[in-house]
């Protein structure tokens, strides 16, 4: 099975191009060397195509543009800007910096999404096992003793019955409550993804709902603006005009509500507003960022200010993700602890409450 071309493969690719360009190695030789030394079969085949196209007279940006699944408009814009200025080394350096940032933020995003999902699944699996295996055995023992049961034990037995008894039949087969508890989150996720893909109106409402979530909504907003800011900073620093840079940066945004906000930025800039006023007008950038951009515009040092904005959001995202994970772990641990305490109280409570009857007996 061929390996997928990862972000780190592309980082290595542009690092090699930067080093060879800086050493005076001709582009065709550099592309051929990368093709011959890479261990990734898919990347090797792609580099063969790119090297052949450049040899036949295409510019590097044109050759890369024939592989849009790997090289998006951001890559093409940066390389094209380097070709126009005659400084491809600077473009390679900018791409390496950008890709390293993307790799780091993607690792953070995976941490923010996978960790809660895995921990939540483990907790649900543990609860399901206890309700379907452990509690029924305890219930059988309590029924054998024929004790008066307190309300929390009755509730525990009713919950366990939901898990172990068929909730309904599907195609003639019983569907147990325990499997519903495990299956409903997965089914809801698949349904949401399908609706999001097939209906823009529903997708917009789903994205708006995500942004409205406590903690998670703010995290999504910060990650989106961080990616947008970093991409725009990289494009602007390479000499690409503001409007083109904003449009290319918008392609990194997936949330439809945020895409509307970024379109507002573009419209305001096209109508003549300064970038700082456009950021302020879309309503998604904090006042600190707006002030930073305004200072950069007034001082004529917008590029370094945009880098600072990107660093600001990167740090903000890192802190938000770490804070969320620190909150999730004790919360889920507390839920599991309460469940175990309920099972212990539900099973031992009736025995202690009827201890006098046992002593009389």
Side-by-side strand order of the widest sheet: 1-2
Individual helix count? 16
What integer is the average pLDDT? 84
Counting helices, strands and paired strands, the structural category is mainly alpha
Give the ordered list of helices and strands: HHHHHHHEEHHHHHHHHH
State Rg.
29 Å
| Unreliable stretches | none
Number of strands: 2
Which oligomeric state applies? Answer: single chain
Portion of residues in helices? over 70%
Please outline what is shown here.
Helices cover 81% and strands 2% of the residues. The protein has helices at residues 7-22, 27-37, 41-55, 60-65, 73-85, 88-145, 151-164, 177-198, 200-212, 216-237, 242-250, 256-270, 275-282, 287-299, 302-353, 355-360, and strands at 166-170, 173-176.
How would the blueprint of this fold be written?
Blueprint: H1 7-22, H2 27-37, H3 41-55, H4 60-65, H5 73-85, H6 88-145, H7 151-164, E1 166-170, E2 173-176, H8 177-198, H9 200-212, H10 216-237, H11 242-250, H12 256-270, H13 275-282, H14 287-299, H15 302-353, H16 355-360
Antiparallel strand pairs: 1-2
Helix pairs in contact: 1-2, 1-6, 2-3, 5-6, 6-7, 6-8, 6-10, 6-15, 7-8, 7-15, 8-9, 9-10, 10-11, 10-15, 11-12, 12-13, 13-14, 14-15
